[in-house]
Specification:
Elements: H1 10-21, H2 46-49, H3 64-69
C-alpha cells in the first residue's frame, strides 16, 4: 500500500468477484429464464385485449390479369 492506496492486482480482484458469484445461480449461466409452457392458441383474455374479430373475406373485383387483358 502506498499513500493509503491499495496496489491494483487484476488477478486478486477477479478472484474476489469469482468467489462471490460462484455460489449464485448466474455463475457460468447468465441467461436464466423462467420455465416456459407451450400452449396451443392464445391465453384467456388475449383475444379481447387485442380486439380480435373475424375478418370478412375480401372479394377481388379488379385483378391484375383482367386489367392487363383490358389494356389498362
Amino acid at each position: 500500500m502506498a499513500d493509503g492506496i491499495q496496489k491494483f492486482n487484476w488477478e486478486a480482484n477477479i478472484a474476489k468477484v469469482t468467489a462471490g458469484w460462484s455460489d449464485g445461480p448466474h455463475f457460468k449461466n447468465p441467461n436464466l429464464a423462467p420455465a416456459m409452457v407451450i400452449v396451443d392458441g392464445t391465453g384467456p383474455g388475449v383475444d379481447a385485449k387485442l380486439h380480435v374479430a373475424p375478418v370478412k373475406e375480401a372479394s377481388i373485383d379488379d385483378v391484375w390479369n383482367q386489367r392487363r387483358a383490358n389494356g389498362k
